[in-house]
Each structure stands twice: as structure tokens, then as C-alpha cells.
Amino acid sequence: MSSYRIQGATGDWEVVIGLEVHAQVTSHAKLFSGASTAFGSEPNTQVSLVDAAMPGMLPTPNRECIRQAVRTGMAIDAAINKWSRFDRKNYFYADLPQGYQISQLYHPLVGEGTITVQLDEKDPESPVKAIGVERIHVEQDAGKLMHDQHPTRSYVDLNRSGVALMEIVSKPDMRSPAEAGAYVRKLRSILRYVGSCDGNMEEGSMRADVNVSVRKPGEEFGTRTETKNVNSVRFVMAVIEHEARRQVDVLEAGGKIVQETRLYDPDRGETRSMRSKEDAHDYRYFPDPDLLPLVLDDAFLAECRASLPELPDPKRRRYETELGLSAYNAAVLTAEVETTRWFEALLAECASQVTAKAAANWLISDLFGALNRLGRDIADSPVSPAQGAELLALIADGTISNTLGKQVFEIMLETGQGAGAIVEERGLKQTSDTGAIEAEIAKVIAANPDKVADYRGGKDKLFGFFVGQTMKAMAGKANPGVVNELLKKVLG
Amino acid sequence: MTKLTDLTVAGIRDGFRAGDFSAREVAEGFNAAVAGAKALNAFIVDTPDHALAAADAADAARAAGDAAKPLAGVPIGMKDLFCTKGVQTTAASHILEGFVPPYESTVSGKLWEAGAGMLGKLNLDQFAMGSSNETSYFGNVISPWRRSDGGNAAMAPGGSSGGSASAIAARLCPAATGTDTGGSIRQPAAFVGISGIKPTYGRCSRWGVVAFASSLDQAGPMARDVRDCAIMLEAMSGFDPKDSTSLDLAVPQWEAGLSSDLKGKRVGIPKEYRVEGMPAEIEALWQQGIDWLRDAGAEIVEVSLPHTRYALPAYYIIAPAEASSNLARYDGVRYGQRELPEGANLQDMYAATRSAGFGPEVKRRIMIGTYVLSAGYYDAYYTQAQKVRTLIARDFAEAWDHCDLLLTPTAPSAAFALGEKMADPLAMYLNDVFTVPSSLAGLPAMSVPGGLDAGGLPLGLQVIGRPLDEQSVLNAGLALEERAGFTARAEAWW
Fold this sequence. Notes:
The structure holds 2 protein chains of 2 kinds. Helix content of chain A is 39%, strand content 19%. Chain A has 15 helices and 16 strands. Chain A has helices at 63-75, 177-194, 233-252, 298-306, 312-321, 327-335, 337-349, 356-374, 385-396, 402-415, 419-426, 434-447, 449-456, 463-473, 480-491; strands at 6-8, 11-24, 83-84, 87-90, 100-103, 113-118, 128-140, 144-146, 155-157, 164-170, 206-215, 225-230, 260-265, 270-276, 286-287, 294-295. In chain A, strand 8 and strand 9 (155-157) form a beta hairpin. In chain B, the strands form 2 sheets. In chain B, strands 4-6-5-10-11-9-7-8 form an 8-stranded mixed β-sheet, sandwiched between helices. Chain B has 15 helices and 11 strands. By secondary structure, chain B is α/β, with parallel strands linked by helices. Classes of the chains: A alpha+beta, B alpha/beta.
């Protein structure tokens, strides 16, 4: 994957990628005011005097937003700066009521950290790569303009104005669209584990600015472009592919890359120039004189650390070593916090004879299969962990076979009934009654003398045929172990 | 009997409690004085009903036998930089003309809570930028004082709290709020012969005060004497969780702690404040002040504040830098004036609105501030100025190893006539040369009247104290006041 190359007429090109991810902090109030942050409210219903920048209004930092950013930093093993400071980034725009954004240019809250990604997420055995995070700082979001409401006017909605964002800036460590995609997915997974951002890219709670440049392998970094506000993993990867190709074409035609801001047009699948460096703003950053520097004490940091959950990587290792899960299963179960939560709830409900392995296999094949079919997330699974555990217990104690288990699960999905009730009502109990099984085996053997002869003549593979016939005759309710045993005895 | 409008805050408070008069009589007296003094242009908006309502509430409470609030029966003037709920607040600018805040600044709210009533919103230099009160969109404030040379030149009341100064000196209100960024309480107090104190930065909440330079702005009282300043400051101060630079400390009982006995106190005389070309009268008054404080029991020592001469340039970088950013919100989008020329786009609207809405001095400072913060100049100006600020604060910190207080003149001259310095912004900025260093260091500092110059105009003495030591500053102010026996007042011509 790191061998991703763009083929050009003059040879291969390498792509260099850095991402600035803006993640909306999960909190009930804005970064510097007490106004609510709920998504999708009527325009301008969540705007305090501070957010509207009324004369004399002052910002006061919201502790919860700071706490979430610190916890996020801790989750990527980053240096937490006990002393940080807010700066003003000055520019005029109608969606920016104060005429400046409060951000942290010079002294961010969180310093360098690392996010480790699997180079092929489908293959847990594939190599891993550590991608550096330069910094995380907190800043205010702007409001938004609404252009289509009036023939000659634009309206301003300040609901989002002042909402806390974490800007998570990677180092230019990524070399392929797939790596960038894996990075964003992993980052989103960590944010969701930590609970500091819901990672909902469709609602805009997470968006990425994509920095791309190309170079001949081994040469210096080329000039980069920045594509703003890309709001899905797929688009991030598409932007990189398109932008790298475009840059190679420009360079090979003898042109130069202009450092500029671009926009992604998902309908056409291309990026377009938004503004060049020449008309770039002079933001006139300076320390916000309304706010004292942010000083964190040890007790606060200790509380932040203690509140962190087990994170995806250590959890995956633990699933492998403690629970004995396969690397693949452990990776699948820990990729998203919702899956992990469901799995752990399932384990907690399971009786002792149900192994973690059996639970994991059932969740990944049966439950995920069903959810895929139904187009539902695990968070709104039609079957609860307790119901799953009940089913697994019936399989584990031999009440039903695996095959029957699948049937019972289908009925559970359709009816919402519990596994026990279904087995009881429909008489699906597996039988280990050797008498009944022996009687059926006798019939099968009597009906297939030629096959018996072939088997005895050395065609071992026919054994499965006898098992299948016997199970069919028993309507699937026979204990497969007992069937096997008895068949072996009879067939000799 | 003394006219009610000649009473001090303490006099009104005590007389009202004693039942000598009703609060309504007081409010009516001052309302009439305000209405009769339009020539001074001290008020932008009169609010006689606000004053009467507070007075009636005080009278009703007294009749019901309720304990009197600290400022019950006392009407005051409110600098129009404080947002007042339901009452136009403009910062003396066109851009906020007609703006009526739906909220009350913390400081004004505390004063109403203490029982005070509002006579009106006082004129000031536009966005508190100016030292003569000639930059208000609503016209110049005129000092009640005239030179004794027989001329009738209209005198500057100082700035930016010129409306407050003029109104108190003319007995239109017993006290008023001021704000001080680089001397805006102390210099006008000196020009009109009243007292004013800027407390330690963080004592008074800035919430709801239209911002000029956030790291320097501090509210404080202006009144006729030191006791009134102490009473007012007690009511205005206190922690406010809505201002993150507010100090989380209890408010001392400054009035109860007043004492003019300075035994055991050492007063420093900073040698760098003897500036070239300072009038001999200022020099003489300063010496007089030194003698008065020695007489009050203080030991006088010479101290050095070596970076004093860099204070003014640093101030005129930092304050405009913050102002250029703080005033960005006046863009015509949400409130206040909007200019929308035919076919204008967003940028055109900003430019037209801000061109029409801000006066020349405000524009000048926005331009300076924008320049000093711009890429390529930031380090040369802003960073350098912040370093100077640190050195100046260190100068004071080192001075406190040798003394408890500092005594200096408040301003380098007496009041000048309106128009005299408007053509020369640098000469105007020099007015703040003695008040700016303590502002940069966030220290409490007060001006009290010391005497008159040859032209019959008041001169002020400034006392600067350690952080949070307002009590010592007030006490030294009281010692000066008692010895100066300043009783001069402007003859009513308006």
C-alpha cells in the first residue's frame, strides 16, 4: 500500500498527504457560552448573546469541551500541554459574528501524538503504520449562510456559531488514499470510543481538510493544495486520487502547482480552486485578551485519564490473548465502539458454557449477516444481547444444533420471540435419543445399499451423505455428534 | 440648608437614612440639574424615570422599615459604555446609535442592586478613545470650568470619561461610573477637580461594558471625594463568572477602612516621571503632595521605574491592536447601523457601514491596530510592545520592594481648550503619559484634586498602589484631600 504510485509519462510519482480533521466536541454547551449545541434546530434558536457577539459580551471557557479535547489527546498518547492559550484569528465574514474566531495557533492544548492504522483493514495480519499527529487544538465553529431563502438576500444562522471543534492536525505521513481512509476511520473510531465526538460526517460533526502534494519518490515535498470541508471517508480518498492525478498532469505538462485552497465537488468527483494564496487572508492572530491562559492541574488531568475507556488497540490485543479470538474476529469486534459494546454486553449475558469464541463467531457471521440484510446498525439491532445469549446457551448445552440455531435465529428476527420459547413451541429441541437415531440410520442404510458398498469399498467422502440423510430424516433435530458416532459404528 | 445637588454620595445616603429628605426629592433635584445643563452636553440620553423609580423604591422601603441598601436614594450617571437594559447604549458612536441592549452590564446591575438610580447615559470619547471628549458622535462635552483669564474658551473635560467628569463637577450627579484603559478615569477627574479611582484589573467585571482594549479596560467610580469613591467602588466590584479575567476575591470594606494616617507607609517618588517641559506648577503641586503625605506620617523615598518612557508607545500599540479586533463585530450584520449602497456585496456593506459608523479617531486606532498585528509587522510592534509591558510591570514590582505607594502628577498639564490639540494626535496621546504605565501593569490608581493652576483650573495628584491594595490608595488619597482642602468649583454659566 505504501507502494501506491501514480504512473506518469515521466515515471512514477508518490503522493504525500496530511489531514486536518475538524471534530465537533460532544458537549451540551458551546465552547465559550452556555448555549445548546443540539443538531438540526430551527435557525438562530441556539444563540446566546455571546454567540451573537453583542456589545460587551465576553467568552468564558466551557470546562467540558476542554476535558473532551484532553481525553482525546490522551487516547492518542499525545503530550497534553498544561499551559495553553487562546488566540484570535481575525477575518470578516457574515457567519463570524465577532469578526474573529477564537482558536489556538501558538499554544495548542494537545501536542504530538500517534494514531496507528492497519494498512489493510480487511487483513489483521497486514503491517501497521504509525501516523503522527502534530497537535490538537480547540476552536469555535462559525455559523452558516443560507443563500436560497430570498431572491436578493442571504440569511445567517448562528446556531453552530461558537460550537467547540477539535482541530486534529496530522503530520504529512500518509502516502496513499487507502492510508488516509484508514487514518480517518481509525481516528473516528477513537473519538467514538472516547466519546469526545460522535464522528457523524453526514451531519458535519466531523470533516476534513485534505492537504495533497506529489513528488518523485525520495525527492523533497512538493507544493501542496488544501481541499476544504470534505465530509466522508470515501470523498477524502476520492479527493486524494483526483488531486494527485491533477497535480501530476500539471507538473508533467511543465506547469507549477499553486498553493491554494480548493473545494471538492462530489457530483463531478473533482476539486476546484476556491482561492489562491495571493488573496489569502492576513488573519492577524494574537492572544485573546478576554481569556486568561488555560492552566490544567494534575487532578484535572488524572480525572481525564481515569475516565478513558479501554481503547481499540489494547482491547483488540486483549480479545486475542484473553478471549482467544482470532486476529480477524478481534479486529472486527473492536473496530467500532458500538460493536464492542454489543459484544461485551452479549458476553456478560452469556452462561459459563458459552465460549467467547462461539459468541464472537455468532455475532460476526449470524448477527452481522442479518443486520446487513436488514440494512440496520448494530445500535438498533432487532435482537438484544440477552436474547443472543439465550440462543447461544441453547446451542452450547446441546439443546439445539448449530444448524437449528440458525433457524431459530431467523424466527427470532421475524417474530421477536426468545430462542427458548421458539424451541419449546415449535418442538425444535435436538434429540440425543440413540434409539430413535439408530432407527432412522437403519432406514437410510436399507434405502442406499449401493452407497454403503461404495463407502465400505473406500469412498470415505460418502460419510457426509449418510449424516445428511439421517439429519434430514430427523428433521434436523438429531444431535450431530450422536449421529456421527452411531453411523461410524453401523458402517464399521 | 445645603442644596441637595451639592451633597456627596455619603451625604445623600446618610441624610436619606436619617429622614432629612426623601429619595424622590433628591432624584427630582438632580433630574432638574441635568435638564438645565444641556450646554455641557454631558449626557447622551436622560433617564429621569429610571432615577425616580429607584427613588420611589427607596422611599417605599424606608416607609416599610426595610434596611436601606448601600446606595438607597442616590442617583448616579452611567457612562454610555455600560450596556443598560432597555436604555440606548452607543459608546458615543454612530454605529451603535439606537442600539438598546436587552441586557444589563454586571457593574451597572450591581449599582441598581445597591439601590442607585440612573439619571442618564453620559457622553464620552467614541468607544472610549480620546483624552478630551472631542471624538463623540454626539458632540463635545464641555467642562464647567473656565480659565480665570476672562476668556470664555470652552474647556475640555478630559477623556474618555469626560461626560462623567463634567456632570459631577457641575453637580448634575453626585457620582458616576467611568472606565479607564490608559487613564480615562484619572485624567478627566484631574481636569475638572474631582476624584476617581481605577481599581486593580479584574476587580470590576467587564461583562456588558463595550470593549475598547480588553486587557486594559477597567471600570471605576468618579465622585467628588475619596469617601464617595470608596462607597461606589464597593458597590461596583466583585467576582463575575461571566468575565474570565474577573478576580475571584471578596470585596473589601473600603469605606470602613478609610484612614488618612499614613504612619508606617513608604511613598515612592518615581524619578522618571519628571518629564521635560513639564509646567512648573505641576512640579510644584507634586512637591506639595509629597509634603502633605509626609505630614500624614508617610516616609518618602525616591524610586526608579526605568522603562517609563516606553510605556506610552507600548500602550499605543497594544490598545489599538485589541481595539481593532474588538470593534470588528460592528459590521452592520446583526445590530446597529447598516449602510447598503446600491448593488453592494458583503464587502461593500462592511466598508460603507464602518466608514459611516466610526469617527476619525476610532478609524485611526483601528488602522494602527490592524497594521501592528499584520503579518510581517507583528513581531516588530505587537510582540515588542508586550515585552515592554512585562518590563514595566516588573519595574513596579521592584518598586514595591522599596515602597507601598507611588505619588505622581495625574496629567502633565491642566485642562486645555477644546480644539487645541485635536489637530495633533501625538500631543493628545501625551496626556496619558502618567496614567498609562499603571494601566499596563493593571495596578490600582486614583486621582484626587490638589489645587489650581495660574489659570484657575484644577490639577490632580495620582496615587498608585500595589495590586489589590485599593485601601492604601484610597487612604493616601484621603490624606491628600484633607490637606489640600480643595473647595474650588466652577461657577455656573450653563
